[in-house]
Amino acid sequence: MCKGLAALPHSCLERAKEIKIKLGILLQKPESAADLVIPYTEKAEKSAKTQKPSLDKALQWHDSLDKLLQNNHGLASFKSFLRSEFSEENLEFWMACEDYKKIKSPVKMAEKAKKIYEEFIQAEAPKEVNIDHFTKDITVKNLEEPSPSSFDVAQKRIHALMEKDSLPRFVRSGFYQEFIK
């Protein structure tokens, strides 16, 4: 029986994640998923008129997570989809790593590294991503002396996970289907 969160057995955690996904699917009932999409970047948010991507661009997302992540509408739609499944932590981690790589100041880099670690990597983190112990150990070792590549191994694992798991579910969803109608 599942009692306290800290003492949850592995199978109970798996069951909780299944329930979370099923609830997300039930909550996904918009008339038009494209209406829920808000472009991610500040540049797109400031633009009064954002255009829906061409059919050709949207079709490229089917086979390329990178092309999806590079497109403001694609990224926003993918994020909305993941949020509807209560599973946006992988994308949020990937985006945090991208922002982290742009930091030039060693002090700010160390602060951001600590924040990313506490939010996504450490055990029982609020948005803990699913990475193996080997990857976690490498990341922790890299954080002893933070550099722009400190999270590269973990970010690549999460990217691969999203490509293998999240992207196929996304392209079957109404969120993606709105773009290819």
UniProtKB/TrEMBL annotation:
Family matches, as Pfam families: RGS
Top-rank taxon: Eukaryota
Domain RGS: 64-180
GO CC terms in record: cytoplasm; membrane
Biological process annotations from GO: negative regulation of signal transduction
Subcellular location: Cytoplasm; Membrane
Sorted UniProt keywords: Cytoplasm, Membrane, Signal transduction inhibitor
SMART domains xref list: RGS
InterPro entries linked to this entry: RGS, RGS_RGS5, RGS_sf, RGS_subdom1/3, RGS_subdomain_2
Biological role stated in the UniProt entry: Inhibits signal transduction by increasing the GTPase activity of G protein alpha subunits thereby driving them into their inactive GDP-bound form. Binds to G(i)-alpha and G(o)-alpha, but not to G(s)-alpha.
PANTHER family recorded: REGULATOR OF G PROTEIN SIGNALING, REGULATOR OF G-PROTEIN SIGNALING 5
Record's protein name: Regulator of G-protein signaling 5
Organism: Neophocaena asiaeorientalis asiaeorientalis
Gene (name only): RGS5
